[in-house]
Amino acid sequence: MALVPSLLGRSPGDANIDRNVQTWDYVCQSLCIIGMTVFFGLRVYTRVFVLNGFNKEDWMVAGAWFLGTGYSVIALIMGHYGGGLHLDDVPPEHKIPFEKTVYVTMVMYGPTAYLTKVCLLWIMTRVFNPFRKAVIFIYVFMGIMLAYYIPAVIVKIRICNPIGSFWNKDIQGTCLDETSIILADAVVSMVSDLIILILPLPLTMSLQMPKKKKLRVIGLLGAGGLAVTASVIRLALIVTTGQSKDATYAFMRINMLGNAEIAMGVICTCLPALSALLIRVFHEYSSNKATQSEYKLSTVQNQSKTQRSKKQMSVLEAESDEDGLMYNAQGNPRVETTVHGDTERQGNPRSSPFNGGIGITRTVDVSTSVETQ
């Protein structure tokens, strides 16, 4: 009699049911949704209130965020209907809804992954615009991916004939090999993520800037390639467990890695905007600090020096080549820079511009250029 529960399966409320993968799914999807939303919100704030407003690229990122969030929501619904549990522990009435969520995620993965990767590559075309060959390669690469994903989505939509036979085995029909289709997606995703990871390396190393700053730019632009880790593990799981009959357990693990890959890609598309926001905050903090220091110093010096002239000074200043690249990634925004100088020492090039004087602010348009060695 002890074998009966193991043969017939356990009730959904059984404490002995292994819910570890299901719990990890809830945690993973929650983190993905929160992470994508927070970073996308920071990007929107930066574009609207700090930089020069929305452009086509921002709408593409908005689309990637929308699809990525929807992809994670479907994964949560999948978990509700038994995803992450062993097949024998899933109530019979949940098996068809589970298969429907599998179908939806298969169809959604391609457009979501492609749009996310295009957003990452679009940033690189803006930053490395002087490297014509590299930009041409990026556009060709995007075209090749599009040539794959369009027919792949069509095939996945029509994976079964009739379509309902995919989730309802009582309907007679013919289906393509689901594992082979998912495996092809995993291979393409891994290769494209690897290219996105490697592409900024040779381009940034050829720039004339300190090595430390080159590494920062590489880290920022290549961060999207971190998704290659999730892609590699996902591919390995598909190869080892893709034919498992314990579909609810095996597919949930594969799908979680797909969600993590998409979420990392969406977050990384927002990093350049976050970098621009941090630089802007630093500029404002430095400007306010310099203004306060200048005011205190001038109060003391005015007691003995009353004949200082008040001549305006304006300077076009960039923090570094790294900052210039990040600004370029955001579409050449406007930067306000404050420089303080002492007009009595303008003729002395060794004198510090912050040893007293009047502070003046001028708004300038920043343009960046890249020189190759």
From TrEMBL:
Chain segments annotated as transmembrane: 24-46, 58-81, 101-124, 136-159, 179-203, 215-242, 262-282
Record has Chloroplast as a keyword: no
Sequence ranges assigned to domain Rhodopsin in this UniProt record: 42-279
Compositionally skewed regions (Basic and acidic residues) per UniProt: 337-347
Keyword Membrane: yes
Cell compartment(s), UniProt: Membrane
Pfam families reported for this sequence: Fung_rhodopsin (PF20684)
Region Disordered, annotated ranges: 322-373
Keyword line: Membrane, Transmembrane, Transmembrane helix
InterPro entries linked: Rhodopsin_dom_fungi, SAT4-like
GO cellular component entries: membrane
Membrane topology category: Multi-pass membrane protein
Feature: compositional bias, Polar residues: 364-373
Family of this protein: Belongs to the SAT4 family.
Protein name: Rhodopsin domain-containing protein
